[in-house]
Design the sequence.
């Protein structure tokens, strides 16, 4: 299979020991089992600078992460990262807080965004240290896996 | 003139972790200053009790995502001291190389992403990148060069997994280290230019008569070993740390405040290392400092951005030196047998001295642990700086005054996540 925009990369972001923050990693693991040849799947801590390096050279990137936007736990959102560019987020910009949103904004400024990049977010119920993922967030994993794989299939030309 | 002012910064930006500043001025004098650390307490010292000594480097590495190597190095040094082990020179060199990787990563992050926006007038690195993309790109690439060392020697970039008491689990092949050299050559040149660039920034005219505390070693710029010295006559082996330094809990901070007995607040970190050890820097780093107009004595905390750049250059230089001379150790580690003992370790984390003390039981379990990170030590000095810094600036608009105070705090590159490990959290209403 080939992809007109260049290599396809799926990045699951999260911390396996912080409740629903694990959800991005869970999606990545499942996508990896079913991804077509030529698709790279990574699990990532979400350090912004390292993320920018990770997607360097990719044509199409899918980021999967837990989000906290006040929505219903387990709800799935899809955002085109180019649409995030103009938005300001209230997060602190320390290195600990230099995460996915800041990496996208900084990459946009520096011309380091991949040609296509989508963020799939799963609304989290909580991020307590050592907690397992909530049933709501864990229940959304299969759905996000399907959405990502479907989108990859739509962009392949073979 | 504004004689009564209150400056309150509820969330300090561009520092590691969560902290706040409260400052109250009455009749032109700073009546109260509190660097409030409200990051939740961490309890690491208690976690360690009962764990096997061999687990300590990996557990303490988790205290910080920016300086995990510092924790591993101080932990190994303390436990090797307790258990009577001295690692061979090739192992020590490899540890020093790993530490250089952390310094490069941490200093690049601070100089370019956290501190530079203060001097160039931006709220954060993203805003700065709009107008100065080359500055941010250089910072990111330098950070990556440090990360690469961490990955090759430490096994991964964040929270390395390859360090153990007595050595490493696996030592790299010479070809793996040689592959790092080209990028480090670039990094060395970029650091040299960074020193020049940083020296061209505009600095507030603020100098303090600091008590500096750092390690010193006769053969090298301090990183992984040395005696603890100050510019006021202190010169002690690491094992005497507790006789000279004390920690206390103040209600406004979850981090313990450290003081030097008989002196009070002191400064540790790049400025202290530089002032106490200038002549141990590589000739390249000394030359770069002098060309930039930085004398061996620097008493302006804002100029720590230049000093950090000099140390960045030194760390690149030192990393290249170690890589060029690398002979793989015959064994990646020395076997370490437990015994009942107490050991002491102190190394130079990017932000200053990091002290560890462990008491090990006969079966190898940790009985007692004490960890003193640099930010705990610098808290008192940051507050003292603010007391001196603020009075002449009282006529500034609130926003400007707040900004200046934050800039001063960021000069210390405080790592609040590291510093918090105390029990009680109290916020003054």
Sequence:
């Amino acid at each position: 299979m080939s992809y007109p925009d260049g290599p396809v990369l799926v990045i699951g972001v999260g911390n396996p020991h912080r409740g629903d923050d694990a959800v991005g990693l869970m999606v990545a693991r499942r996508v990896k089992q079913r991804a077509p040849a030529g698709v790279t799947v990574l699990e990532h801590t979400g350090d912004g600078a390292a993320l920018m390096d990770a997607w360097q050279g990719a044509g199409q990137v899918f980021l999967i992460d837990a989000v906290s936007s006040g929505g219903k736990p387990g709800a799935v959102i899809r955002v085109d990262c180019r649409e995030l560019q103009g938005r300001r987020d209230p997060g602190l910009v320390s290195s600990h807080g230099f995460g996915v949103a800041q990496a996208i904004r900084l990459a946009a400024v520096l011309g380091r965004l991949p040609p296509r990049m989508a963020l799939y977010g799963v609304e989290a119920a909580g991020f307590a240290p050592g907690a397992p993922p909530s049933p709501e967030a864990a229940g959304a994993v299969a759905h996000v896996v399907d959405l990502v794989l479907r989108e990859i299939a739509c962009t392949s030309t073979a | 003139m504004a004689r009564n002012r209150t400056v309150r910064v509820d969330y300090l930006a561009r520092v590691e972790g969560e902290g706040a500043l409260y400052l109250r001025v009455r009749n032109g004098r700073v009546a109260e200053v509190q660097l409030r650390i409200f990051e939740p307490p961490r309890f690491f010292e208690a976690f360690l009790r009962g764990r096997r000594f061999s687990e300590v480097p990996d557990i303490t590495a988790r205290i910080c995502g920016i300086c995990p190597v510092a924790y591993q190095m101080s932990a190994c040094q303390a436990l090797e001291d307790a258990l009577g082990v001295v690692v061979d020179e090739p192992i020590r060199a490899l540890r020093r190389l790993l530490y250089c990787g952390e310094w490069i990563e941490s200093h690049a992050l601070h100089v370019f992403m956290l501190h530079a926006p203060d001097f160039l007038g931006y709220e954060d690195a993203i805003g700065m990148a709009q107008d100065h993309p080359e500055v941010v790109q250089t910072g990111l690439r330098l950070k990556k060069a440090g990360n690469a060392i961490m990955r090759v020697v430490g096994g991964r970039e964040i929270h390395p997994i390859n360090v153990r008491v007595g050595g490493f689990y696996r030592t790299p092949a010479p070809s793996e280290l040689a592959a790092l050299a080209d990028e480090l050559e670039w990094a060395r040149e970029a650091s040299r230019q960074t020193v020049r660039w940083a020296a061209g920034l505009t600095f507030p005219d603020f100098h303090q008569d600091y008590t500096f505390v750092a390690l010193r070693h006769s053969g090298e710029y301090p990183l992984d070993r040395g005696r603890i010295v100050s510019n006021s006559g202190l010169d002690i082996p690491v094992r005497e740390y507790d006789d000279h330094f004390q920690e206390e809990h103040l209600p406004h901070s979850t981090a313990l405040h450290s003081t030097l007995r008989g002196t009070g607040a002191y400064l540790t970190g790049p400025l202290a290392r530089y002032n106490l050890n200038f002549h141990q820097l590589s000739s390249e780093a000394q030359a770069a400092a002098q060309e930039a107009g930085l004398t061996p004595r620097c008493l302006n905390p804002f100029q720590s951005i230049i000093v950090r750049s000099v140390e960045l250059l030194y760390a690149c230089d030192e990393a290249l030196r170690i890589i060029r001379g690398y002979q793989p150790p015959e064994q990646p580690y020395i076997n370490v047998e437990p015994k009942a003992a107490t050991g002491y370790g102190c190394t130079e984390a990017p932000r200053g001295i990091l002290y560890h003390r462990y008491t090990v039981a006969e079966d190898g379990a940790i009985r007692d642990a004490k960890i003193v990170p640099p930010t705990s030590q610098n808290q008192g000095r940051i507050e003292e700086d603010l007391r001196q810094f603020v009075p002449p600036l009282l006529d500034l608009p609130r926003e400007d005054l707040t900004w200046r105070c934050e800039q001063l705090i960021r000069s210390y590159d405080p790592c609040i996540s590291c510093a918090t490990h105390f029990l009680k959290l109290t916020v003054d209403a």
Observations:
- The first strand of chain B starts at residue 5 and ends at 9.
